[in-house]
């Protein structure tokens, strides 16, 4: 069943040449495009779908997507990461889900987390960055001939944010 979903997902992306469809970098980018498969929801209201905490694997998500052709409701970071990991493994890319705690969200790329307070020390909730209690993404193992020597190996792909692959060696 997983291979049928993979073929469907990959065949929808007509922008890739045949050569690119054999490139692990391009394939990894396709697998983290899970937003076409899953709809994210952080509201706490899941009446018209499935609470992200109730998913027990990728297969039911991919099966529902294959049967309906529409986004499956709902996912959050660990669900996006797990589906991307399953898709990568199904096409032969070694992959693992990674989780960290107290995950800083740096929206303006300043390499700091900026929060604002009034003169009384009360938190102001405007344009503040945040610390999530955790975040999950997928690491994929691949050669990176497009990067300088030493940057192959584990690559981070974040299906929640649609970013990557980024060499873990470069991120250090």
Instruction: Kindly report the CATH topology.
Output: Coagulation Factor XIII, Chain A, domain 2
The radius of gyration is: 18 Å
Average pLDDT, rounded to a whole number, is 85
Structural class: alpha+beta
CATH first level: which class? Answer: Alpha Beta
Largest sheet: 4 strands, antiparallel
Strand content: 25-35%
Tell me the number of strands: 8
**Separation, N- and C-terminal Cα atoms:** 38 Å
Q: What is the second-level CATH architecture? A: Alpha-Beta Complex
Order of strands in the sheet with most strands: 3-6-7-8
Helix fraction by DSSP (H/I, runs of at least 4):
25-40%
Instruction: Give me the number of helical elements.
Output: 5
What is the approximate shape? globular
Relevant CATH superfamily: Transglutaminase-like
Order of helices and strands: HHEHEHEEEEEEH
Helix/strand layout:
Elements: H1 2-12, H2 24-31, E1 38-40, H3 58-68, E2 72-75, H4 77-90, E3 95-105, E4 116-117, E5 123-124, E6 130-142, E7 153-158, E8 163-167, H5 168-171
Parallel strand pairs: 1-2
Antiparallel strand pairs: 3-6, 4-5, 6-7, 7-8
Helix pairs in contact: 1-3, 3-4
Provide a descriptive summary of the structure in words.
The chain has 172 residues and is of the alpha+beta class. It has a single domain, classed as Coagulation Factor XIII, Chain A, domain 2 (Alpha-Beta Complex), CATH 3.90.260.10. It has five helices and eight strands. The protein is globular. The mean pLDDT is 85.
Summary keywords:
globular; Coagulation Factor XIII, Chain A, domain 2; about 30% helix; four-stranded antiparallel beta sheet; single chain; 5 helices; 8 strands; two-stranded parallel ribbon; alpha+beta; about 170 residues
